[in-house]
Amino acid sequence: MEILIRLLIYSLASSAIFVQKQNRSHYSPDRALSAIVIPVGKKGFEEQESRIEIRDGAKTLLRWRSFASSDGEHGRGVYHAQWTADGQFFVFNAPSSGGHQPWNLATYFYSRKRNRFYSLDDFIGPATSDFTLQGRNILKITRMNFERKLQKEPVRVRLENVEGAAQRGSASKTKRLSI
């Protein structure tokens, strides 16, 4: 019986360690903040749905956003995540866990200044590719342009401009936010 209890304790401890290893921490360039991507999907498909936590140096939770769904098939899992060079924005994309709109690679960003998450797609239209970061906080990506019938229209945006547009409440007017 004692051996069985020890095996159970070892099994639980190693499971907790395994789950902890699945979390991905991304530190801001100044290391003052960390963005933690936590897999929250169904067993065996944990990476297909995620929760993002932004924490300060004392590990205090500043903001979080969950992309989990109740059925495990309609949420989003973080694919690519990265801080901008100036450390003001944490950018990530998250495809649908159910394969809905597979051409859309929904892209989001966290603003350090506003302590808030934003959907980049709300400002530029549906993203259709992975992003790359340039300079302090310029994001390069492609989007679906329904008016011009372009599936991969290249766009470059300065995230501080998107953040400013969001604060002004002008999301519908910012489809042309390229720099």
Rg over CA atoms: 19 Å
How many strands, which pairing sense, and closed or not: the largest β-sheet? 4 strands, antiparallel
H/E topology pattern? HEEEEEEEEHEEEH
Strand order of the largest sheet: 1-2-3-4
CATH architecture: Beta Barrel
Descriptive report:
With 179 residues, the protein is of the alpha+beta class. It has a single domain, classed as Lipocalin, CATH 2.40.128. It is built from three helices and eleven strands; from the N terminus they run αββββββββαβββα. The strands form three sheets. Strands 1-2-3-4 form a four-stranded antiparallel beta sheet, with no helix packed on it. A four-stranded antiparallel beta sheet has the order 5-6-7-8. The longest helix has 21 residues, at 2-22. It starts with a helix and ends in an 11-residue tail after the last helix. 28% of the residues are buried. The model is unreliable at 4-21 (pLDDT under 50).
Describe what is shown at a glance.
The chain is α+β, with helices and mostly antiparallel strands. The protein is built from three helices and eleven strands.
Give the tags.
single chain, 179 residues, alpha+beta, Lipocalin, four-stranded antiparallel β-sheet, globular
